[in-house]
Amino acid sequence: MAWLGSWETFVRVVECGSMAAAARRLDCTRAQVSKQIGELERAFGVRFFERSTRKLSLTPSGEIFHQHALRTLENIQSTEFAVRNQGDSPRGVLRISASLTFGRMFIAPLLPRLVARYPELRCELILTDQVVDLVEDNIDLALRMTKVPPDDAVAKRLAPLQRVIVGTPAYLATHGTPRVPQDLVHHSCFNYLLGGSDANWRLTDRQGKEFTIPVSSAFQFNSVDCILDAVRASHGLAVLPTYLVNAERAQGSLKTVLDDYDPISNFGRHLYACYTPSRIRAPKVRAFLAELESEFEPVPLWERSGAD
Amino acid sequence: MAWLGSWETFVRVVECGSMAAAARRLDCTRAQVSKQIGELERAFGVRFFERSTRKLSLTPSGEIFHQHALRTLENIQSTEFAVRNQGDSPRGVLRISASLTFGRMFIAPLLPRLVARYPELRCELILTDQVVDLVEDNIDLALRMTKVPPDDAVAKRLAPLQRVIVGTPAYLATHGTPRVPQDLVHHSCFNYLLGGSDANWRLTDRQGKEFTIPVSSAFQFNSVDCILDAVRASHGLAVLPTYLVNAERAQGSLKTVLDDYDPISNFGRHLYACYTPSRIRAPKVRAFLAELESEFEPVPLWERSGAD
DNA sequence: CCATATCGTCAACGGATCATTGACAAATGG
DNA sequence: CCATTTGTCAATGATCCGTTGACGATATGG
């Protein structure tokens, strides 16, 4: 097992693009860098770099090692952080509220990491599509997608929310691709089943002109998951948030239509983290907020090109 | 940054319960072990062990460090594995099918790890509650909960499935706890809305005697998630798989009733991994199967006491 | 073309680090 | 009480690691 310093040296070399530059960065000699990389390669039995006098490039093995090295070094950093800050570390029960689908997709996966970092912290993720009362429901922090943040709480804006009209290539091949909003009348358009919700889609074009289109589908759901499944199964189109569909758009299994129009949603244009002023003083809430910021700012991960 | 050997030594000491036992295990001297632990503690500026001659116990800082050390060492192992096996590593698109809820809960979280380990591998998780055709739908491996495995495919049994009748303490406090199966008639019992599904629950007692009870509820869903939400909201009882409810049972927010009776389900008693014989030769399928085995055998993680 | 600068690597060398050894004190069980 | 086990210490030798100076390869400017 090689000394971990050489892992760090390796990462620096990749960052700086050459061993000499890495040596300057690390304030050591080129020979030391060269030696460490060489020994690392011997330890693993593969070459990590293709070498020419002026250019270093990673081999496939080097690419693999780089990814893993980054993660390992990050683990070590978080170990140090956790051990050194054990005294005032977040503890107790952190109660988070988020909507069903968004919460499962983007908040639940944060919790294992948070709990691992703060072993005395416990999280309760309350998933509901209803509006929660922060005080009455004892919620430390709620993720809300709303038009305006509430007055009785601090609402930190985390990410913009976009919605697109999506359908599968198969659906569009069979039924045609809508060219103007009025074409939607002839399509099966899934609308979230919300008691009293009107069955119209509202769109604005690039000049701000608004269109209200009556839409319909053979069946409906009060479940975004079910709507997405129906779209996937080529039963029709739907207005869905990009956080839900961006991965599948990237894969080509979902396509957006009427790209020159912007769906207007009843559900808000931004994601907010909401908490009462008294709660932000708790380390657990601060820690979670920091986690949210790193995950959703400046660009939410579902809008990043590498998002899967 | 201390040499990583001392992290490994630390983990061995925790495992073996003493430095002397760890030294024997590592085939080195007690003094070496003692020295490495001492230097590790100096590097972090905290004590990791409380020491008495016959007993070592972890400090809180030691507990934190232990968790992180395990993960870091695991990262290093997977790094070595990935680099050494890069030649015949799993690649291409692995298509997995699983039911909506189970797939999201237990299969989706495996994929990031799998993809990180095999960077040339891509996974497509097809979540559907319909039965898929392995060949026609081009599924490499399907997770099925079925009574009997299909004839046209290999079906490796992964885990037993149990179901329990659950309700919240609040619901049971308001409506009473059913003592015998016939009491269920007076309760709101959520039944999965499956076209043509009969509205009876079947239970067997410890002697194998079977009871068929007509059940009803004011509303129904074809979504396990929605059923669970309704149960959580104290609207009634439901027969739900333990993988879905065990965490909340452990927290006390859900309680089982009629524990002396076993619900008979239409959905099967075991979880199987199904694949066609030709597909198991692909490294990607073998890799995923290995991942499933480690996750679900011998005890599926939702049945483990530490499962969150 | 030559001179200069930069790059990565090598071998020799000295300093730093690490493992071993033998001894000690403390705790436990017979 | 004695024997055994445990963790720690200091001295010592072995091993590892960084430095130095030199080399060959490459690129650039005059």
Q: Provide the CATH superfamily of the largest domain in chain A.
A: Periplasmic binding protein-like II
List low-confidence stretches of chain A.
Answer: none
Number of helices of chain A: 10
* Helix fraction bin of chain A: 25-40%
Main β-sheet of chain A, in a few words?
5 strands, mixed
Name of the CATH first level of the largest domain in chain A = Alpha Beta
Bulk shape of chain A: flat
Tally the beta strands of chain A. Answer: 14
By oligomeric state, this entry counts as homodimer
Query: What integer value in Å does the Rg of chain A equal?
Result: 25 Å
Examine the coordinates and then state which fold CATH places here, giving the name of the CATH topology of the largest domain in chain A. Answer: D-Maltodextrin-Binding Protein, domain 2
From N to C, what is the helix and strand string of chain A?
Answer: HHHEEHEHHEEEEHEEEHEHEEEH
In angstroms, what separates the terminal alpha carbons of chain A?
A: 33 Å
- Category from helices, strands and their pairing of chain A: alpha+beta
Into which percentage range does the β-strand content of chain A fall?
Answer: 15-25%
How are the SSEs ordered, and which strands pair?
The structure is a homodimer of 308-residue chains.
Chain A: H1 5-16, H2 19-26, H3 30-44, E1 49-51, E2 56-58, H4 60-84, E3 92-98, H5 100-107, H6 110-117, E4 121-127, E5 141-146, E6 154-160, E7 163-167, H7 169-175, E8 189-190, E9 200-205, E10 210-214, H8 224-232, E11 237-241, H9 242-251, E12 255-257, E13 261-264, E14 270-275, H10 283-296
The first copy, chain A, binds a DNA duplex (30 and 30 nucleotides) through helix 3.
